[in-house]
Design goal:
Elements lengths: L1 E5 L2 E5 L13 H11 L5 H17 L5 H12 L6 H7 L4 H8 L13
């Protein structure tokens, strides 16, 4: 087990930096993880992170990529509802980076990146 230190608080993570307890997530945690990933939290990325958090709060599960793409089509238009768009924002994948920044535990199945 590893840890992440944010504002003096030690948060437990797995070996890849995913939080072990999603309830410990804050916007400051997101900023630190995004910085470690080398990704600026611009409006597009932040919107996706917030969608993941909102979905998780409502459903106690992480949205699959196709669910996110459906939401992007409705909120940002057809051009943003593609896997290519997601990979432009999160080059190592939706599950690997977006979900990590959103404070999710590491997904057991990679249906997130389908």
């Amino acid at each position: 087990m590893m840890s992440l230190i944010v504002n003096g608080q030690v948060l437990a993570t797995d070996e890849e930096g995913f939080l072990l307890d999603p309830s410990e997530w804050t916007t400051d945690v997101a900023a630190v993880i995004a910085q470690q990933e080398g990704l600026p939290l611009d409006e597009q990325r932040w919107g996706i992170v917030c969608y993941i958090r909102d979905y998780f709060e409502r459903n106690q599960s992480v949205p699959e990529a196709r669910t996110l793409l459906k939401n992007l089509k409705q909120t940002r238009g057809e051009s943003c509802a593609t896997r290519r768009y997601l990979y432009q924002l999160f080059p190592y994948g939706y599950g690997q980076q977006a979900c990590k920044i959103a404070g999710m535990c590491k997904p057991r199945k990679l249906m997130l990146d389908v």
